[in-house]
Amino acid sequence: MRSYGRKSISASPRPRDLLAPDAKLAGVWTAQVITLFPEAFPGTLGLSLTGRALKDRLWQLDTIHLRDFGEGRHRNVDDTPAGGGAGMVLRADVMDRALTEARSRIAPEAPLIYLSPRGRPFTQARARALSEGPGVTVICGRFEGLDQRVIDHYGIEEVSLGDFVLTGGEIAAQALIDATVRLIPRVLGNQSSVEEESFSHGLLEHPQFTKPAVWNGRAIPEVLLSGHHAKITDWQRAEAERLTKERRPDLWRAYLQSQGRDPDEDQEL
Ligand SMILES: C[S@@+](CC[C@H](N)C(=O)[O-])C[C@H]1O[C@@H](n2cnc3c(N)ncnc32)[C@H](O)[C@@H]1O
Description:
With 269 residues, the protein is α/β, with parallel strands linked by helices. The chain has helices at 16-19, 48-55, 92-104, 124-131, 148-154, 170-181, 191-196, 229-247, 249-258, and strands at residues 29-35, 59-65, 78-79, 89-90, 112-121, 135-140, 157-160, 214-215, 218-219. Bound molecules: S-adenosylmethionine (SAM). S-adenosylmethionine binds next to strand 5.
């Protein structure tokens, strides 16, 4: 009789499912991604701190290949837009099958997001809220996007990365997941850096400097080398306010309101 490979059974103190490289852990923050390009993941999420955290199972990634749920022999996922026009649209029935599978393997309270230039802008506050939940299911669109009926049927939230159009949702998904995962405790070595950075207090972050003390005739602001912590904090706060006021009047208004100040009394707005 021919033998096809080696079959060995050995006792293991660890449960079998934990030995599988793609085994999913209950209670671990989960990024679930529905995509036509699962090979794009983890992508940059597999590098540096998010990559280490992924290996250490501080979070986990579950990619779902939309093609597996396609129609017919060719596994078609898209068709021409009703009413005519350029491009193709992702089919509702195909996405429904992918979603049924996806939602069966994530906590039901995990939000369901379709990345779309039409969506509400993604913010640091949204990243924080997502990081405090069990995870998220994100749908990466392609072509002209997704049939509206499946968005309405599932009550899917549309989230945008900004006022520009990407070719597909994969880069947007990585950005959303990166911004969220780094807020999960222990993912960043230094948690205080999260508290100090842009948006954490409603302001953009102050400028940063490092060695050498003078570069190309430009010196580091003296106060930062003074060792006087109160003065350094005052300088950083003043710079953060200046930059926010100059670059983001929308954030500046909201910041003034959060401080109980009246934005209409700010002459330069
Ligand atoms: C070429 S775009 C589709 C654009 C769509 N026809 C429109 O005009 O709104 C293909 C996919 O890329 C993703 N995408 C493009 N721009 C995005 C953005 N600013 N934010 C989030 N996702 C985006 C979405 O998933 C979208 O379905």
